[in-house]
Amino acid sequence: MRQTPLSGVFGVKNAGHSWEALQQAVDRVVAIIQSDPNKDRTDRIITRWLKRHLQRLGAEVHLNQLNSLVEDRDMLAENLENLVKKERLEGMLAGRQEGRQEGRQEGRQEGLQEGLQEGEHMKAEQIARNLISRTEMNDQVIAEIAGLTVDEVSRLKSEVKH
Predict the structure, then answer these.
(1) Nearest to 132 by CA among 162, 149, 153, 147
(2) d(CA 32, CA 34)
(3) Contact 43/33 with Cβ under 8 angstroms?
(4) d(Cα 11, Cα 55) in Å, to the nearest integer?
(5) pLDDT digits (tens, 9 = 90+) for 133-158
(6) Contact predicate 8/29, CB 8 Å
(7) Distance, CA of 57 to CA of 65 (rounded, Å)
């Protein structure tokens, strides 16, 4: 298949939002332009289109300085490389922030669970203390009613007597 300026433009358009893929596509376009008999005209047209395309993608490339893909290829490559680094850094920071938020949420959930369990246990101990001080039930029965172990009821019984 013959490489034409139009096929190069489609390659850039289909590179998506991956700056590395975009740089590879731009390299292919430059090679196509260099082999084109009307290279100056083709370079101007494709450079103008690429500047608009990069603006639509939200690239913060110094587009005013971009006049020729063939001549400014290294500058464009450097800018695209900086964009890749910036996006990776932003992605890492966003990932860390998301991880912190998830960690906080998990911590809140765990704290709430622990608090509820502790509250339930305290309530069970209070029920057991009331049964110990107001009834003649044995430790086994009190443990079953309060939801505690017999050892816990025995410990509470010794605390109540003191």
Answers:
(1) 153
(2) 5
(3) yes
(4) 17
(5) 999 999 999 999 999 999 999 999 99
(6) yes
(7) 18
The pLDDT tens digits of the residues spanning 55-80 come to: 776 666 566 777 777 777 776 666 66
Angle between helices 39-57 and 5-13 (to 10 degrees): 10
Q: Helices (DSSP H) in 14-149: which residue ranges? A: 19-35, 39-57, 73-134, 139-146
Question: Which CA distances in Å does 81 have to 49, 63, 161?
Answer: 20, 15, 77
6: tokens are 């139009």
Q: How far apart are CA 62 and CA 55, in angstroms?
A: 10
- What is the b/e burial string over 85-107, where b = at least 16 CB atoms within 10 angstroms of the residue's CB? eeeeeeeeeeeeeeeeeeeeeee
